[in-house]
Design brief:
single chain; mainly alpha
């Protein structure tokens, strides 16, 4: 295939997808929770075409792109604030102790007579 033919094929391929007839999906199962592209005994046919105009679809894609960009910006700002707070020590709060020190058993201070192991727990 020549280069020109390949370019023409690449340019026309998306148009075939737009010209495709709406796809039928079948809702099957006793509760209607199973979807299939092939008919089933107790299934109901659903048409899953997009009734929106090309303008409405483009507007929805634009809103989605703006939302995604805003989410990226907010995440970057949050990371910057977290990094700044970490560097400042978060208003004088010291960082958490290492996990080894936190998990080490601590000795309990006991007041009063020593515990008699022969006594039941409520009596101690």
């Amino acid at each position: 295939m020549s280069r020109r033919g390949a370019l023409l094929l690449v340019a026309v391929t998306p148009l075939w997808a737009l010209a495709a007839p709406p796809q039928t999906v079948y809702r099957c199962g006793p509760d209607g929770r199973v979807y299939s592209q092939t008919p089933c005994a107790d299934g109901k046919a659903l048409t899953v075409d997009d009734p929106r105009s090309a303008e409405q679809q483009k507007a929805a894609r634009d809103v989605s792109a703006r939302d995604a960009e805003q989410a990226r910006q907010l995440a970057a700002e949050r990371r910057q604030r977290e990094e700044a707070a970490r560097k400042q020590g978060a208003a004088g709060i010291k960082p958490e102790a290492p996990a080894e020190a936190a998990s080490a058993p601590r000795k309990k201070k006991t007041k009063g007579p020593p515990i008699d192991p022969s006594m039941s727990p409520p009596m101690r």
